[in-house]
Specification:
There is one protein chain. The strands form 2 sheets. The chain has a 4-stranded mixed β-sheet with strand order 2-3-1-4. By secondary structure, the chain is an alpha/beta fold. β5, α7 and β6 form a beta-alpha-beta unit. The termini are close together. α5 packs across α6.
């Protein structure tokens, strides 16, 4: 996204903190995290970090977020806590992306309530359509009950391996059976995408000429 000159914030709403570590921050050495913003009322500007990637900022996470689902249960307006946090700073960014677990916990519901639209990543593997149906039902539940403006931005096919017949079959099935919008861009299985988190860099900074970088730049343009 830096090549499109957009100011972007990643909100790491996953207690595994992959977005936090993958952009170069140490999840074990944070002054404040998303948990502090949601549970303790810390202003998000106190927690947001600037990454090494130009124009890319991070609202980080760590293992503390595991407890958020439990602590949110007895709070008023519990499904709207993340939205309240992001409303304070959304005017400062061109795009805000929320990285969350696919499971239907309170943090995931918070993410869907705060979002305008959803990108649904689907691996090109067996049972992909079955999993997609469950995710679609979850999104529709939130749309009907909590966030009527929520839309599906598109289904993103990933982990595509042209050597595997199964990958090609999944893409064919998706294009002929799903009613949701489907991104033209497909993320191929690529060693550089796998290696980049190990050096705590986005793949575009790790190897800009790789197939993985090309895929994600194409996705950014399409988005």
């Amino acid at each position: 996204m830096q090549y499109l000159k957009k100011k972007v914030l990643i909100v790491d709403a996953d207690p595994q903190a992959n977005s936090t570590s993958g952009t170069g921050s140490d999840e074990n050495n944070l002054k404040y995290s998303l948990y502090d913003c949601i549970i303790n009322g810390v202003h998000p500007n106190e927690a947001i970090l600037k990454t090494e990637t130009p124009n890319l900022y991070l609202l980080p996470s760590n293992i503390d977020l595991v407890g958020a689902d439990i602590e949110l249960v007895n709070m008023e307006e519990r499904e709207f806590k993340l939205k309240s946090v992001l409303d304070k700073i959304k005017a400062d960014f061109d795009y805000i992306f929320i990285d969350c677990l696919p499971s239907l916990g309170l943090m995931t519901i918070n993410a869907l309530v705060a979002a305008d639209s959803v990108i649904v990543p689907v691996q090109c593997e067996l049972f992909a359509l079955e999993g997609l149906s469950k995710i679609s039902n979850t999104i529709n539940l939130v749309k009907n009950n909590l966030n009527p403006d929520l839309e599906i931005e598109g289904v993103l096919l990933s982990m595509f391996d042209k050597r595997l017949r199964m990958s090609t079959m999944v893409i064919k099935d998706m294009r002929h059976t799903i009613e949701m919008p489907l991104f033209n861009t497909i993320i191929h299985r690529n060693s550089k995408i796998t290696e980049a988190p190990l050096v705590k860099k986005p793949v575009i900074l790790y190897d800009a000429s790789s197939k993985g970088s090309e895929n994600f730049l194409n996705l950014a343009q399409e988005f």
